[in-house]
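Question:
Now give any protein.
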Amino acid sequence: MTLITDGMQMARQETEWTSSKGNQNKWFADGMWYKEDGLGYEALAEIFVSRLLAKTNAGSFVSYEYKQLERDGRSYHGCGSADFLLPEDDKLISVERLFQAYKGESAARGIVQFETVEERIRYIVENMEEITGLNGFGNYLKKVLTVDALFSDTRSDYPLELNTEACYQKIQAKPFSRTFDEQLDACEVLYGGFQFHAFFTMKDVVFLLEEFQGIYEDRILSRVCQVMRQQIRKYAYLF
């Protein structure tokens, strides 16, 4: 999910590229950003989360809609969003690329020198604010980490044959810790501020999933439903 805050726009790159795993094609064309399913149901996860974020206090976020994408004579599930970057010369630049360009080192390798999750997060945030001149990156990062999991990689990490409990056992959160809760707790300690609140229920979840019946497999929709039911129970204090 791509969250943006005032003055913290990501940069545009008008060429095709892939995800960090190299499996999800993404590109910009005709004023739209497109993402194609590469590992499972990534597009559905993007659409689903953006719809639910509209029922939270998350603030600015990118909205995605379902798109049937054609490539090389084949049809793929995907999603699209309106261009969320305004200046014509903006480019999409990852944290890793910024670190290599301005610090001469890898962000991923840099954080392993620190023992605690708090130290790793502080290292990234402070360097990003120094590189970009932007303030509030810690709060932005906290928002991103809050909505960062849906088990959409069904080809390798979370095959549909696994139940959700088994999927939770396999989680290896990145980049700061093996667990999402640890990352969120560390951000809370460091940056406090933003408190996420959700105003949707399981009825909203079920209603949204009905829209994708006949598009995605029933077992995929069932997994999303199960994951959301467990997350709502686990994080009841946010609702």
